[in-house]
Structure formats: structure tokens, C-alpha cells
Write a structure and sequence with these properties.
Number of domains: 2
CATH architecture of the largest domain: Alpha-Beta Complex
Largest sheet: 7 strands, mixed
Radius of gyration: 20 Å
Oligomer: single chain
Structural class: alpha/beta
Strand content: 25-35%
CATH topology of the largest domain: Quinone Oxidoreductase, Chain A, domain 1
Helix content: 10-25%
Length: 361
Amino acid sequence: MGNAQRYMRGVWLTGHGDFDKLELRSDIPRPQPGDGEVLIRVSAAGINNTDINTRIGWYSKHDAAAADASWTGEPIRFPRIQGADVCGYIEHVGHGVDERRIGERILIEPCLTEAGGKRLEPPWYLGSECDGGFAEYVVVAARHAHRIESDLSDIELASFPCSYSTAENLLTRAGVAAGERVLVTGASGGVGSAAVQLLQARGAKAIALTSAAKAESLLALGTTRTVLRSEDLVAALGENSVDVVVDLVGGSSWPSLLQVLRPHGRYAVSGAIAGPLVELDLRTLYLKDLSLFGCTVLDEAVFPRLVDHIEQGRIQPLVASSFALEDIASAQQLFLEKKHTGKIVLNVNADKAPSSTSTAG
């Protein structure tokens, strides 16, 4: 292997902290696929809350410097390449993988149940427990590289994997059915706006909790109603008025979410951007026979179903803006301002054609 093939360009996260922990390098060792794995040439990779939370150590229940600042509670191994939202092309395959997969355009399933030929328990998250897509190449188990047939651009496709699979998993776990009324908090973000579209695909009715500046765009996206964060939620919707709550926010107003749930309603959560500590009145929980679902690990059918939604045109990409890989700090700064609707995506190699000279290993 020539020197140019031994190294790649990418962004290292060198520790928990501020933007100075993001280091653009061109001498990162290029990964090689092992048994049952594929090497993917990354075209584009989306920005997520997980990238920020991992960088600042938010997942720790102690402090940002603690060893448990990850999804699994295990220490992050630095340097780490982040990036869970990946669109790319298979350029090389490891032993046991069909060589005909070389050249496939793929989306990576970000919740990994296999790596290095071994079953993972608990699962890893791409870009957290292992290297992700903020680099020219990434290796994953072949089962997590899903072929995609679509006329959408690489940047558009990179807006789907993490947010839309998280949203689909929330709806799956909560058992959302056609005709049900579903309140979505943080509805203008990546997962929230994905949930709005996926609710439409299920024939359910989305109610968006959002800001005045984003209400119109969410109505255009397909919500049946918007409620402003400045409003009294219970007064606006009424008690026992929704079947399901999809919560990405948490925070001090959390008790009102259970108040608007009908008896036997379901609450599903996968985020807490307004604060992870909430006050729960157990009487509300048990007297209304509510079900609460914490949602991280994807059900097995979720990602294949998402790919099918994309290929059949049932959902559309929502890209707020794109940045070059070297502008990752600016992209994350814009992300943190929370003024956008949809996804912010990094262009890694999206302007370059996939290699046609690769051979299988």
C-alpha cells in the first residue's frame, strides 16, 4: 500500500472540552476492513447532538472529565473520529464479504451491534465507542452498511441515518398507529422534523411544540398544529388530549407532557436538551396507566424500514446547510444556535466520484 493510501484526512476529537479539542489532520492512519467488514469512502456526514454531547462530556452523571462520559458509560478512547450520520461508497471488503458489494452507495446504521466480527453488548454508537464519519474513510461490519438506491445527493442522504432512525425507533417503541395524535417536542431539530415526516408516513397526526420563528416551516412540513414553547401546554391542548408524546427536550416543563397524555398514553424519549433532571409525580404515572419508553438502541427492523421510506420517496431530506469538513467548528457553532430546521451536514468527499479501481481483500 502506497503512502497516500496509508493515511487519510479527518477530524480527531482529542478529549472532552471546547472546539479546540477538534483537530483537523491529514496523517490519520487509514482503517482496513477485517473479517466481515467493509471499508467505506465517506461522502458526507451529518452533525448531531451526540457529537456535541460527547465532546463536552455531557453524558457523564458526574462531571465532564469523568470516565463515564459516553453512551455506554465506558471511557471514550481518544483520539476519536466522531460522526454518526454517514453516506458513502464501499471501496474495499474484508474476508467473507461478497466482492460484488464494492461500489455500492450506502448509509451506515449508526447503532452498531457487531464490530471486529463480534457481537456487541451493549451496542456501540458510531463515532462514540468507535471511529465514525468525520474522515475520508470508515470501517464497519458489512451488516451495518445498507445499500441505498436514490436520486438524492450524498449530502441529502447523510441527513437521514441518525435523526430519522432515532425518530422511527421512538415511534416504533411507542407503537404509534394511524390516526393517533402525537405531540413532538423539539420538533424543528433533526430528530423532531424527522418524526413529523415519519408520523405522516404512518397516517398519524403530529402536533409540534416549537418557537414562533419555526412554526410556519413545521406546518409546511406536515404538522396538524403547532404550540409555542411560550404557551401553557395544558391550556393550549387540554388534559388527556394526545395519545403519544415524543420528547427530545426534557427540562422544567416536563410534568405538563404527562398531563396532556390520555389514560394509557405512551411517552417516548431520546433527548434532554433543556435539562436531564425532571420532576415526576408518580400519581400521574400510575393513575393514568402511562407507559414510559427510553429509546437508544434501534429495534432490528428500524433501519431497513427507514431505507425503504427513503427509496419509496415517503420522506424527504431537510438540509439546513452544509459545510466543508475543515469548517466543523463553524458547523457545530451554527448547530448550537438552534435557529435552523433540519440537519447540518459536512461535505467530506461528496464532490468527488467514488473509486472504480478498488479490489476486494
